[in-house]
Structures are given as C-alpha cells and as structure tokens.
Design a protein that fits this description.
alpha+beta, three-stranded antiparallel β-sheet, globular
C-alpha cells in the first residue's frame, strides 16, 4: 500500500457551475443559546460582478440607516438567485421545495436562515472553507490559526420547521 497522494484533477471551466455546500443555521433556543441546524444547499458559483449586483456594498453610514426588515426583504429577493436547491424538510419530514425559500426568508425563520445562507455564500464567493458552527451566537467560530485543531459541534436539540 502506497502513501503517495493522487494528483489533483485537471481544472475544467464549466458553464453555470454549481456546488453542494453545507449551511449551518443557528436557531435560538430556550435559555439564551443557539443550536446549530444543518442542510446542504446547491449554490450557483457566480462571477464577482454578479455577486456585487445581488449584494451591493454600502457605506457604514448607509448600512446603519437601513431597517432590518429591508435587509430581510433583500435576502428574500437575492438569496433564491444563488441557492438553487436544498435538502430542507418540513415538520412532517417531507422535503420542502426550494420554491419556498423566499417565503421562509420573509417568515419567522428569516433572520437566522438568511444569516446561515449568506455565510455559505461568503465562503463560496471568497474561497473559504466551510466553518464549523459557533456554539453560541450566530457567527462562525474564528479558526484557531496554525493549530489545525477541529472543533466539535453540539448536537441540535430539535429541528426547526419551515
């Protein structure tokens, strides 16, 4: 048995590429904590100009003036153009079609669902590896630079419904 690594596959330019990517949604739970819930999404990989058109950059002053409802509405408009498939299930265990994404982003799960999807888009867009979920809050944990240590994720206590 050889310990030699296989050579990397050839780079191939593909039209309209997509990628399967993990999404972690930090769902608020009793006691002031968050539980990570995961799904796999199918994301369009886009040119930077397309990302900028969907997610325009704003000055800090402009961003501070925006209402949170406007951010959620922007997510409901933009994210379905990037996330084109998912393996999310409803409360009965049946698959929820991706056509329900915009409504879910406008609903009671919108804030934390949008945050998880935007985090995944950022990872894909900037070539970052998928981050393990934070144990508290809704931000990814900072990598321990240079240690190579993996962090364990707590098991979710229950599944949110969409």
């Amino acid at each position: 048995m050889s310990n030699q690594q296989q050579p990397a596959p050839a780079f191939v330019l593909v039209s309209n590429p997509t990628v399967q990517w993990p999404v972690t949604v930090q769902v608020p739970t009793n006691g002031g904590t968050f539980a990570p819930h995961r799904f796999t999404g199918t994301f369009r990989v886009m040119a930077e100009s397309d990302y900028l058109a969907l997610f325009p950059q704003r000055s800090e002053a402009d961003a501070a003036k925006r209402e949170f409802a406007d951010v959620l509405a922007e997510n409901a408009e933009a994210l379905p153009r990037v996330l084109v498939g998912w393996d999310v299930k409803g409360p009965d265990g049946a698959p929820v079609g991706i056509e329900h994404l915009a409504a879910a982003l406008r609903g009671e799960h919108g804030a934390f669902l949008g945050a998880g999807i935007r985090r995944a888009v950022t990872e894909i867009r900037f070539g970052l590896p998928a981050q393990p979920p934070a144990t508290l809050g809704n931000s990814p944990t900072a990598p321990d630079i240079g240690s190579g240590a993996q962090q364990d994720d707590p098991a979710p206590t229950s599944s949110p419904t969409i």
